[in-house]
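Trying the structure run again after the queue cleared.
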Amino acid sequence: MLLRIQLFAGLAERLQTSVLSYSVQKSEITADELKIELSKTYPEAASQITVSFVAVNQEYAPGDYLITEGAEIALIPPVSGGDGQDSVHALSKDGRYCITDQPLSIDEVTSKVLNPNHGATLSFVGTTREMTGDQRTVHLEYEAYIPMALSQLEAIGKDIDSRWPGTLCAISHRIGKVDIMETSVIIAISTGHREDCYEASRYAIEKLKQSVPIWKKEIWDDGSEWKGHQKGPWDPTASL
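Done. Tokens:
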């Protein structure tokens, strides 16, 4: 069977393609078997393939998941939220989750969670930092697997509602080039009480960095590097 595998970030750069056509000599293959075969076929990218997760039809697939021809497949390297793409402004059905290459507005995102019965509203704003130790960042570039990123953002909102019932959440993330001091992500939370608001906001950003397929590339004066998950072994399906 012939599989069409979408690639992102440093993995796409290493293999010099964003879509890989890969032939498998059987009618089905598990996610783990696919990674093993790809690592053997592309040894130059084996270290990146090994730590990546397979996504099937925009959901993270367990290692024993059977992949068949026609499935939408993506190989997701460690994430941590692009370039060269048409203008993007993708919204979830309820409008509270957004992936866009346009500048973000704190007021616009926060307005999505305002509620007359909520006494606490908190907006987290992530911006591009110039200096990290002695390393100077010129700008950042973000890339996303947009349909899956949106569904994962919605999943964060549902998870937050189950942990802190009644909480409202809205998240907008920018892709493409983001200059120094510009905003890359806004998370707005509103709850009945401030303790839940602080906790839910922190949970949202940590879960976003863990599981949402958005990648960050740091551009320096003398080079660049894709930045992925940096807190131990990466598992986007693990609980925080």
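Residues 30 and 64 are 5 Å apart (CA to CA). Worth checking whether this holds up in the mutant runs.
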